[in-house]
Design brief:
Layout: H1 2-21, H2 39-44, H3 77-80, H4 84-98, H5 108-121
Helix pairs in contact: 1-4
Length: 130
């Protein structure tokens, strides 16, 4: 029984992490935000970019913080260093949201764009993303 409890706890924690990664509770921006000169460009230039020039590091700052609502932290050493069982739970949850299986407030276009960007920029994606 303890194995089942561990899986349920991992699924719960995975949901919470995915909610953060996909900005589930993000506040909408009611008027455009302007940052420090040059920061936006320098930040976005760090990529990685897909073939269409899209990156998870691109700001929106008109309606929401980021252009594509998936955190660039998915590329971090901390994320890559997660135990495989944890990363698997997170990837499965991300896929359920991005595939539309789990309802979210992400638009079809956002979900599609995030999947396309991840396919071209994230090396260890599970097969079901491809």
């Amino acid at each position: 029984m303890s194995g089942l409890l561990a899986v349920l706890e991992l699924d719960k924690e995975g949901k919470e992490i995915v909610d953060y990664l996909l900005f589930v509770d993000e506040a909408r921006i009611s008027s455009p935000v302007h940052g420090t000169a040059g920061f936006e460009e320098k930040f976005a230039a760090q990529g990685p970019f897909d073939r269409k020039g899209r990156s998870l590091r691109q700001f929106d700052l008109s309606h929401r913080m980021m252009r594509y609502p998936c955190s660039y932290m998915i590329y971090s050493k901390a994320f890559d260093g997660l135990p495989e069982v944890a990363k698997d739970a997170i990837y499965r949850r991300i896929w359920r949201v991005l595939s539309g299986e789990t309802p979210s407030r992400l638009s079809d276009g956002d979900r599609r764009a995030i999947v396309e960007i991840l396919r071209e920029t994230k090396k260890d994606l599970p097969q079901y993303f491809l």
